[in-house]
Amino acid sequence: MRLLDTMVTAAKNVLFAGTRTALCVLSICIGITSVSTVMGLGNAAGGSIQKELDRIGVRGIAFYQPSGGAIPAEAVMAVQQADGIAAAMPLSLTAGSVQLRNISSSAGILGVDSNLDRVFQITVIHGSLPSEEQVRSRNKIAVIDEELALRAYKRTNIIGKQLSVTVNGVTEKMEICGVIQSQSASLSMLLGGQLPYLVYIPYTVLQEMSPDIQADKLITSAEGEDPESVAAAVIEQLKRKLGIDCSFENLNRYLGSFTLITNVLTVFISGIAVISVVVGGIGVMNAMVSSVEVRTREIGIYRALGAQKRDILRAFLAESMLLCLCGGACGITLSWCLFQLLQALFSVHILFRWKTIFISLCISASCGALFGFLPALRAARLDPIQAIRSE
């Protein structure tokens, strides 16, 4: 029996068994919908987290002293002039709270200087970032994100408004000099919680509020493809010229860690979703066993007309795989429709990749081959004489 004849026969048998075919396709459809939906959501979550981390600007190299002391001004100037360093900024970070109008919230208070937009990926909506003169003069100014502005005033342009910043029990009134695009709203939604707002103030002001908080990190944006080599050369230069012993941390590694966590979670949840595919496959096996019993006389006639055991085996395997592939195609289509619905309702962009479609179809075909093999083998081993005599 030729392969084309085998496929045509399998297609006819699938179409002939209407109710059985519909139930088998439905069981596989549910399983594949679960798998492809989980994979699609995992890809979307990974892409969104990557995008939000890029927006926050968690990149570059962080220099610090192992003893935890403040970074000297001489080291800041030396690093800024080093080869391979595009920009450098002393950074102090502490937890605090802010009050804007009638809104009070926890916040991450970052002490920065005039190189803020060169080190972090900041998009200014209104106003401006702290200048070098304002940092040196210890002007009490602050940069907030649009989410805090919208929550307090229902608008983003609130330049000149007063913001109360509290750090270690000390409260200072800050004038809002800039409003930037939100850095935490989408990431907070993805991580399932409310992240603290980020508020940027001159690091000199933060030190004045709490002398214990020093600019103990030097954040840089590195040029080139090998930031670790650049960092090692800078540290060697600092040690040789200034006698300062520093260590460094490649912030790009955090992006890889977030991506790895997302991928592991996607694989784990997809593994759970595969259980529904296995349940559907057992239903397909049950249907194929029933089909063999019903068509025993037909199998005997095929054998009497010259069909070999391998022809019967291929015919039933083809029928089982065709059932599962139809279910897989329906599941992928249903999953795509769910993604379109989610995008329409929540404005969440979910990319349905070809990789997801390919993996889903491979799982469907594998399911058909795995769970259809034993019924097909049973059909192939039937004795032709006994099969023809059966009722």
What does this structure look like?
The structure is a single chain. The chain is of the alpha+beta class and 391 residues long. The protein has 14 helices and 10 strands. α1 packs across α12, α10 crosses α12 and α12 packs antiparallel against α13. It is elongated and about 100 Å long.
Discrete helix count: 14
Strand content: 15-25%
| Termini separation | 25 Å
Structural class: alpha+beta
Give the mean pLDDT: 82
Tell me the series of helices and strands, N- to C-terminal: HHEHEEHEHEHEEHEHEHEHHHHH
Can you tell me the residue ranges where pLDDT is under 50 for at least 5 consecutive residues?
Answer: 186-193
Structural shape = elongated
Strands, count: 10
Largest sheet: 10 strands, mixed
Based on CA atoms alone, the radius of gyration comes out at 32 Å
- Fraction of helical residues: 55-70%
What are its keywords?
alpha+beta, ten-stranded mixed beta sheet
Write the layout of secondary structure elements.
Blueprint: H1 3-16, H2 18-56, E1 61-64, H3 73-80, E2 85-100, E3 103-112, H4 116-119, E4 124-127, H5 132-136, E5 141-145, H6 146-153, E6 162-167, E7 170-180, H7 185-191, E8 197-202, H8 203-209, E9 217-222, H9 227-241, E10 247-250, H10 252-294, H11 296-304, H12 309-346, H13 354-380, H14 384-389
Helix pairs in contact: 1-12, 2-10, 2-12, 2-13, 10-12, 10-13, 12-13
Report a brief summary of the structure:
The chain has 391 residues and is α+β, with helices and mostly antiparallel strands. 59% of the residues lie in helices and 18% in strands.
